[in-house]
Design goal:
Blueprint: H1 4-12, E1 25-31, H2 38-57, E2 66-72, H3 77-87, E3 95-97, H4 101-113, E4 118-120, E5 139-141, H5 146-159, E6 165-170, H6 173-187, E7 195-199, H7 207-215, E8 220-224, H8 229-239, E9 246-248, H9 255-261, E10 269-272, H10 281-294, H11 302-319, H12 329-337, E11 343-344, E12 348-350, E13 368-373, E14 376-379, H13 382-387, E15 392-393
Parallel strand pairs: 1-2, 1-3, 3-4, 4-5, 6-7, 6-8, 8-9, 9-10, 12-15
Antiparallel strand pairs: 10-13, 11-12, 13-14
Helix pairs in contact: 2-11, 3-4, 5-6, 8-9, 11-12
Length: about 400
């Protein structure tokens, strides 16, 4: 059964001559499809593939099939930079990509200098969409930047009465940027961390840092790390028999944490834009379609898949605003920033996701707090589950 978005998309397509075989429309895709961040990179890619398959099934873009130019950055900044340069000569209309803030930060200058639109569906570092003046920027995003995730998390912590915060942040670009946003959010409540732990990715033991945080009187642990280090923290806390709750950004919903920490992950809280429960027709259709397409019962990182799926449709809906066939970088940028037909997405309803002055499609009002329960992520608050019956709009 087709989704409402797909039916609208199909209605936009004109009748094309069967005698013609126009060239495909090429869309770049860059992400970590192998390596330490592949657990969410693969599902970002799958979300894009699913949207592209749906569009191609109803005739593509003005009769042109979508062709994905896929490149694996392996979560390595130097590789990401090299691939950005390669994409410049790949004849793509735009690129959807990057899961890791550090990799994206190393690469976005290439897209900006080349006037090549980039839509980031996963990486959340605040600086990615603020490095360039908004009206000049070619960098767009459909994930929730850390400057809205961090205050959302901190506000929830404070509302629960947890005021002695230990921050555990890795030394990647993601951890560095996230720490700054957390410290800024805490300062809004006249708070400072009672302990800050910094560590490299891949660390296997953080018991020393945990003992120090416990001795400092911390009553909550706030994580900003991208991989299995979240599980290391949870297991270390468990070994100390320390009951301080764990809270963090969206990476606490990843398999590296939930499967790696097992029972130690139970009760952890994290910011989410999309929780994989069939709360309305759009989300039900997306979840069932994804399960059939990729032969899995549960999406390991639903946010990565949903945000990338929406990013693909936002791009295509925007391209229909181009009336003269000009698919140059500046023309595609202007189309993304302009007003087009409403896209009823999975994460949100997008009336005007971007503008010349705003390159972030998501706002804090779209966030909900998730909680790990019985090895899966669900809603931490009953009112959020009720609110999730209606897909949110940008405020």
């Amino acid at each position: 059964m087709r989704t409402l978005a797909l039916l609208i998309f199909a209605a936009l397509l004109p009748l094309c001559s069967l005698a013609q075989s126009p060239p495909p429309l090429r869309i770049g895709v860059i992400g970590p499809f192998t390596g330490p961040s592949s657990d969410f990179g693969v599902h970002m890619l799958n979300g894009i593939k699913m949207a592209a398959d749906e569009v191609n099934a109803v005739g593509g873009y003005l009769g042109r099939q979508l062709e994905l130019v896929i490149k694996d950055d392996r979560a390595d900044p130097e590789t990401g930079l090299k691939l950005a340069t390669e994409m410049a000569s790949a004849n793509v209309v735009a690129t959807i990509g990057y899961c890791n803030t550090g990799v994206a930060a190393k690469s976005i200058d290439v897209f900006q200098a080349g006037k090549m639109p980039l839509i980031i569906p996963c990486a959340t570092g605040t600086g990615l969409t603020s490095r360039f003046p908004p009206r000049e920027s070619y960098i767009f995003r459909t994930s929730a930047r850390d400057s809205i995730q961090a205050p959302f998390i901190v506000n929830d912590i404070v509302s629960r009465g947890w005021d002695r915060v230990a921050v555990f942040a890795d030394t990647t670009g993601y951890g560095e940027a996230g720490l700054k946003d957390v410290e800024k959010a805490l300062a809004e409540h006249n708070l400072k961390p009672v302990h800050v732990a910094r560590f490299a990715t891949g660390v296997q033991d953080l018991s020393g840092e945990l003992r120090t945080a416990k001795a400092a009187g911390a009553n909550v642990i706030l994580n900003y790390t991208v991989g299995q280090e979240n599980a290391v923290i949870a297991r270390g806390r468990q070994a100390l028999n320390w009951k301080a709750p764990m809270v963090g950004a969206w990476t606490l919903s990843f398999p590296f944490f939930i499967d790696g920490a097992r029972e130690a992950a139970e009760g952890a809280l994290m910011a989410q834009t999309f929780i994989a429960e069939p709360s309305n027709e759009r989300r039900s259709s997306f979840l069932s379609g994804y399960a059939r397409r990729f032969n899995i019962k549960r999406i390991p990182v639903p946010m990565a898949a949903a945000q990338a799926y929406d990013a693909t449709y936002i791009l295509l809906y925007s391209l229909f605003g181009i009336r003269d066939g000009n698919l140059s970088g500046p023309a595609v940028k202007a189309a993304l920033e302009g007003k087009h037909r409403v896209y009823y997405g999975v994460v949100a309803t997008y009336e005007r996701p971007f503008s010349p002055d705003d390159k972030d499609a998501l706002t804090q009002s779209m966030l909900v707090m998730g909680v790990v329960k019985d090895g899966a992520v669900t809603f931490a608050y009953a009112q959020d589950a009720k609110r999730n019956l209606f897909v949110q709009r940008k405020l």
